[in-house]
Amino acid sequence: MQPTGPEGSVTSDMPEKGPHAQEPRKLEARLTDADRLYRAFVASGAGATLVLITLIGVFLLIGALPALRTAGLSFLTTQPWAPDGQPPKFGVAAMMFGTFVSAAVAMVITVPVAVCTSLFINEYAPRSLRRGLTSLVDLMAAIPSLIFAIWGLFLLVPLLQPIEDWAVAQFGGWMPLMEASATGGSLFNAGLIIACMAIPITTSIIREVLAQAPRHECEGALALGGTRWGMITAVILPFGRSGIVGGSMLGLGRALGETLAATLILSIAFEIKPRILENGGITVASGIAIEFRDAQELGLSALMAAGLALFLVTFAINFLAALVANRSRPGAGA
Amino acid sequence: MTAPETKALPSTSGTGERRPDTDAGAGPPRKVPPRRRPRAWRWTDMMETAGSLVAAFFLTWLLFTRLLPFRVMPVAFAVVWYALFLPIHWLVTKDGQGRPAAKDRLVTVLIGTGAMFAFAPIVFVIGYVGYRGLKVLRPNFFTETMQIVGPLSKATEGGALHSIIGTLEQLALATAIAVPLGVLTAVYLSEIQGPLARPVRLVADAMTALPSIVAGLFVYSLLIKPHLWLQSGILGSLALAILMLPTVTITAEQVLRVVPGSLREAALALGAPYWRSVLLVVLPTARAGLATAVILGMARVVGETAPVLMTTGGTTVLNTNPFSGHQDNLPLFVFTQIRSSQETQVERAWGGALILLVVVLLLFVLARIAGSAGSGRRRARFPGRGGQRRGR
Amino acid sequence: MTVPDVQHTRPMPEADARPAGGVLEGVDVSCWFGSRKVLEGVGIKMDAGVVTALIGPSGCGKSTFLRTLNRMHELVPIATLAGSVLLDGDDIYGAGLRLTEVRRRIGMVFQKPNPFPAMTIADNVAAGLKLTGTKVRDRDELIEASLRRAGLWNEVRNRLDAPAGGLSGGQQQRLCIARSLAVSPDVLLMDEPCSALDPTSTRRIEETILELKDQVTIVIVTHNMQQAQRVSQHCAFFLAAENEPGRVVEQGPTEQIFSDPEDPRTADYVNGRFG
Lengths: 334, 392, 275
Known about the structure:
The complex is a heterotrimer of chains A (about 325), B (about 400) and C (about 280).
Chain A: H1 33-71, H2 74-77, E1 81-82, E2 89-90, H3 93-124, H4 127-142, H5 145-171, H6 187-211, H7 215-223, H8 228-257, H9 260-265, H10 284-291, H11 297-327
Antiparallel strand pairs in A: 1-2
Chain B: H1 5-8, H2 43-67, H3 74-97, H4 99-136, H5 161-192, H6 197-207, H7 212-224, H8 233-258, H9 261-269, H10 274-285, H11 287-302, H12 306-311, H13 330-338, H14 343-374
Helix pairs in contact in B: 2-3, 3-4, 4-14, 5-6, 5-8, 5-11, 5-13, 6-8, 7-8, 8-11, 9-10, 11-14, 13-14
Chain C: E1 24-33, E2 36-46, E3 51-55, H1 62-68, E4 79-87, E5 90-91, H2 99-105, E6 106-109, H3 121-132, H4 139-149, H5 153-156, H6 169-181, E7 187-191, H7 199-212, E8 217-221, H8 225-231, E9 234-239, E10 247-253, H9 254-259, H10 264-270
Parallel strand pairs in C: 3-8, 3-9, 6-7, 7-8
Antiparallel strand pairs in C: 1-2, 1-4, 4-5, 9-10
Helix pairs in contact in C: 3-6, 4-6, 6-7
């Protein structure tokens, strides 16, 4: 790229006749010194963020290495947690199972409720209530999980326990997985509480996506004489499908990382228990919260390995959510 | 084009709100026809619904008292009642108005029910926490600590001063760490868009998935376990800041991106260097959104228990120095008290929970106010005299 | 009319003095966006005391050319250019002039009014001073003078502390003009300043332009033939053939361009036969 000086060219009113083999000139002094300083300063801030965040991942990985080396592949299949024992015996199988089961219970409740609530706020609620309900959902999303957890522990679980006992008594004999020697501190109940926390955040995201459904198409559907439900199935749900998936995934990420509900509700048991109404279970997050105090050298490393595993799972889910959400384009999908 | 469109022009959007009598105010008093409010439902619809409800109720009653061997439980009764109501309602509307209408009606009921399940917890949570919290909250709750409180003390004795102070200090420190860094990163992402932008955005996105307990574990195993720094408030702030940073960065970037490019161009066209245009035009224009982002970030971490559980240590005495010595905070206070076997301790936990709830509510309201104050600052237009400047 | 001194400013002209403002000259300017050439070999001299209008159909490169005149063109990351732009004989792209100095001396008014929404009316006028770090003796006086020059003073004198967003579109555009004038530019570039405004506001802006033309060199891009005739004395007609960069087909005194153009394409365009 060669700079072309003004001396190299001639002004002409009829330029199409002149020869024009110009090259773009290189510009100088785009930035003042102060601007260079500003750029360097801001870039260093961004760099610090990058370094800090990367450091966490790297540090977790390094910290987890001794435990992973000790346990090998059995880390994924072992249920008990005794990393500081002789010989050390530990793995994330029970924790992961508990995490996934409680999250699954939570999502089975969360997704339909969140979709219903979003549709209710956007399409069914009176106009005057809409803003208030939206704020309420956003507010709910801000309430600390601790409060949901103690509320569940003291109000919801005692309330549900007789019903669960009744269900176990009625169905326990002949339906698989419904037996339980004792109820209350079960993965099901933990999942239920987690659902209460996940519903607001999921609703808030889904509602926002569904609200962006093209109004003229909705009105088109209504103008054809369709019912409200007809409009929802024809326009809004197809439009918001990926938003629903994305929002649910984010809710799932929240549910997987939830610590308090599981710590307070579950009767701790490091084993895989398919009978979800029965007491006992553990999740990764609550396992870390409970075990860290007594953890020795290898124990801490094992906890970091568990934390890393959890992080990888939540990261993968977030990533998928972003992928799905980005694919959503108005009018796409039938 | 014209910014005041929204308030100057009569609303052209919400077509439903225009009323026939709005422009009659100025004219001579004439007979205004009664205002009609179109309704989507009719009285017969109500009757159908009510009838279905009654029919389902008696059917359920019949089932439970005469036909089934189940013990009668109110909850089960309600569930069966609801389950029977749906098909009855469907059949009734289908008979009267045809299949699509029946389906629509059925779905309306289902969606309403679903929404109820979402809104019920909030009412019950706030109500229950308020009820139990108010029982123990006395003024001394804000002035005393748990230092001299024994297992036999009454629930109204002692207080959470040490936890409140701890929460405030830790929150302030976490904000002081996360917000400048986050906003700086956001400025980089949106205004400079340099080569670091892609990796930074990638890791920030990834870190929003970081479970809060893992942030605590990170600080614990990096600093506390190797005895580099003992458990203290600042370490709790660090863990909270790690949780805040990606959220603040991403929200702030979104807020900055909304600032119209024409404003940046206008600033640059006046001869401003980049840094001044960002500092004096872009950031002030986005300040409402930035404030909202910051406050919501604070609301998000103020109730986080898992990370502070591992990092601040927890204590029953007042420690105003966040940099050394164990420090308590509200979530930790609630968590330790609620797990106690003493009834009075548990009672006290609800007091802490109520305060925490109020703090979150306050932050939320603050965020709303900051957000709505943003677009077009509405200040009292006072009739100043020509050329005189005020309010500087 | 009194205009206070600002750093770097030459004294303001008396009523009968030679017109103030800088002489701007584009010399053989070509522009690219990436590898696409959008403008080729444009040379226009924009004299002080003369309003120069750039006309032509959409997409012919007039706005691009205008943006090269105060180095706004390079804000687009893939934009490049060749040739040079001389302000009173100095190349604004050369090493001698600082970028920010160039933009301060060559102001710009945009198509859509863009007052800073976070500032009051007065702060908006004085924004350029703050943004360039310029100190003035009497800020209030400068604000008043700038607003007077833009013809907005009487409308806003009682609400200088009100947010700028509360003004009408035409008032906002004149506020933007006042904002540009407050840093005492030598040249004022206007990129279709009236295209977003109603006819009344348009007329007010045109009056403002005519009042300003002896104080500052004005270059205006417009789609409105009548406007070009009303406000400008010099006129350049841009045209771009399909898939070719834009060029200046013809330029000269406005009267001649509109009454007796040399090029048939110019005649077609100014008589509304295409474009």
